[in-house]
């Protein structure tokens, strides 16, 4: 099955993608944390470094763009095309208050007239510029029934893939996804569909597959792959006894690569703490060690705790 890696800002940059791809793999597409084009700077130097093909060797990367300006979207897409990309993704799902207040991300879903005009422009460019554009969307801003009109809009354009996170903006990432709306999309969408939302285990996937006739393929995973990096292996039936060894390799690779580009100690440890806020779910009965780890301020203190955890495993 095809598995797509959802972008998580601050986590799934090129260092993480390279480490994950080398150690785990089995990802059909990685999506970059969003690029937010400005009027005079379609792609910042930091964003350019993250999506530079030289920093993503052997990775099928789809850059994601967040904007409500078709002109800015097109300028960013042109720069990305010049870098060798033939597909970009439009972010209509980010629920952040600061993003939505600017009419971007899920905030753009409130103004269907402006959204339709925006899509007219960017898909006219896509056809003439040899660029595929996929869309990642929520069901709506404040009411899931907004999705019916939104799907009609998406159906009018050559959307290469419609990735649906079946929540509204105010849900953020809480509660159960509204799966009945994805079922509606399966019946009425003219676009290829991708499901995204709350797949944290093989059981979660199997229950979804049972609900939707024919199964789900591809699917996009985000938090599930951070919490359990071996989840893609498991979904592909490739689970081995080396899963925990792979986690140690992933940790060590990220830890040392972040040390090369960041200082002082605490900045690297902030990055690692964010990962451990997810990974701690794999370490039952280790609450005291995890708590100490998340407070560590020096490499030596951190390493004493972490390597004890990684040596003793998840038992």
Report on this model:
The longest helix is centred in the C-terminal third of the chain and has 19 residues, at 243-261. The chain has two domains: 3-235, TIM Barrel; 243-312. The protein is an alpha/beta fold. The two termini are 30 Å apart. It is built from 14 helices and nine strands. 47% of the residues lie in helices and 12% in strands. It has a nine-stranded parallel β-sheet.
Secondary structure layout:
Elements: E1 3-5, H1 14-23, E2 29-31, H2 45-51, E3 61-62, E4 64-65, H3 70-82, E5 87-92, H4 97-101, H5 112-129, E6 132-140, H6 146-155, E7 162-168, H7 179-188, E8 193-196, H8 202-211, E9 219-221, H9 223-227, H10 231-235, H11 243-261, H12 265-279, H13 287-293, H14 299-312
Parallel strand pairs: 1-2, 1-9, 2-3, 4-5, 5-6, 6-7, 7-8, 8-9
Structural class: alpha/beta
| SSE string | EHEHEEHEHHEHEHEHEHHHHHH
Bin the strand percentage.
5-15%
Mean model confidence by pLDDT: 94
The CATH class assignment of the largest domain is Alpha Beta
CATH H-tier superfamily of the largest domain: Aldolase class I
Largest sheet: 9 strands, parallel
Q: Helical content, roughly?
A: 40-55%
Cα-atom Rg, whole angstroms? 20 Å
Q: What's the CATH topology label of the largest domain? A: TIM Barrel
Shape: globular
CATH second-level architecture of the largest domain: Alpha-Beta Barrel
Note poorly predicted spans: none
Please state how the strands of the largest beta sheet are arranged side by side: 3-2-1-9-8-7-6-5-4
User: How many H/I helices?
Assistant: 14
Provide the domain count: 2
Number of strands: 9
Distance between the termini: 30 Å
């Amino acid at each position: 099955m095809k598995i797509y890696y959802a972008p998580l800002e601050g986590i799934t940059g090129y260092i993480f993608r390279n480490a994950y791809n080398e150690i785990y793999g089995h990802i059909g597409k990685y999506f970059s944390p969003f690029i937010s084009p400005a009027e005079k700077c379609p792609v910042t130097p930091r964003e350019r470094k993250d999506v530079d093909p030289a920093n993503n060797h052997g990775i099928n990367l789809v850059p994601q763009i967040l904007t409500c300006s078709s002109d800015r979207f097109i300028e960013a897409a042109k720069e990305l095309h010049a870098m060798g990309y033939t597909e970009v993704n439009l972010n209509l799902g980010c629920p952040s208050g600061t993003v939505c207040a600017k009419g971007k991300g899920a905030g753009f879903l409130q103004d269907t007239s402006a959204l339709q005009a925006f899509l007219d422009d960017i898909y006219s460019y896509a056809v003439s510029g040899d660029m595929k554009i996929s869309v990642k969307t929520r069901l709506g801003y404040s009411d899931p029934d907004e999705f019916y009109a939104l799907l009609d809009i998406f159906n009018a354009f050559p959307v290469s893939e419609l990735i649906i996170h079946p929540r509204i903006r105010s849900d953020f990432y809480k509660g159960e996804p509204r799966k009945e709306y994805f079922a509606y999309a399966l019946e009425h969408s003219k676009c290829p569909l991708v499901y995204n939302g709350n797949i944290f285990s093989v059981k979660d996937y199997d229950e979804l597959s049972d609900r939707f006739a024919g199964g789900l393929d591809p699917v996009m995973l985000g938090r599930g792959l951070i919490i359990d990096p071996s989840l893609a292996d498991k979904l592909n039936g490739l689970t081995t006894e080396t899963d925990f060894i792979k986690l140690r390799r992933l940790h060590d690779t990220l830890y040392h690569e972040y040390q090369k580009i960041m200082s002082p100690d605490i900045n690297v440890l902030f990055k690692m703490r964010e990962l451990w806020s997810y990974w701690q779910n794999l370490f039952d009965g280790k609450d005291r060690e995890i708590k100490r780890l998340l407070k560590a301020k020096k490499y030596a203190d951190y390493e004493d705790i972490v390597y004890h955890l990684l040596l003793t495993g998840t038992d």
